[in-house]
Amino acid sequence: MKPFLRDSVPQTLAEIPDSTAFEAGYLVTKNAGWRSVRPVIDMDRCVGCLQCYLYCPDGVISRQGAKVAIDYDFCKGCGICRRICAVGAIAMEEE
Ligand code: SF4
Ligand code: SF4
Q1: What is the pLDDT of residues 9-61, one digit of tens each?
Q2: Residue 54: which CATH number?
Q3: Pocket lined around ligand 2, Cβ cut-off 6 Å
C-alpha cells in the first residue's frame, strides 16, 4: 500500500487555499433571495481557527488574512458555521 503523502498536506497557514470552493465564477446562481437568517462574525471573538471555513457545505467562507469572511451572495443561511464555532463568534441574524 502506498504511504500517505505528507507533502501533499499543507504544513503552514500560507499553504492553505484562501477558499474551499471553486474559483470565482463557478457558482452562477445567487441564493441570497430565499435566505431568512444570515451568519455574522464577531471579528473580535474570532480566533481564526478555520473550522467554519472547513465545515461550510457551500464553501462560501474564505480566509482573509488571519481571519475569515463570508460571501453572502452564496451563503444559504444553514447555520452550520455557527454550530461549529467553538468560541461563539458567529451569530445568526434575521435578514
Ligand atoms: S469557527 Fe469561529 S473562531 Fe474559527 S475562524 Fe470561524 S468564526 Fe473564527
Ligand atoms: S450559514 Fe451555512 S452556507 Fe452560510 S456561511 Fe454558514 S455554513 Fe456556510
Answers
A1: 788 888 888 888 766 556 667 766 778 999 999 999 999 999 999 999 988 99
A2: 3.30.70.20
A3: 39, 56, 58, 60-61, 70, 75-81
Give the model's confidence band at 72: pLDDT under 50 very low, under 70 low, under 90 confident, else very high.
Answer: very high
CA nearest 58: which of 85, 34, 31?
31
Asked, for residue 92, whether it belongs to a domain, the answer is yes
**Centroid of ligand 2 to alpha carbon of 70 (angstroms):** 8
Residue 91 lies in a domain: yes
Total structural domains within the chain:
1
- Atom nearest to 39 CA in ligand 2: 1
Q: Residue 63's domain spans which residues?
A: 43-95
pLDDT at 26: 63
Distance from the Cα of residue 10 to its chain's centroid: 17
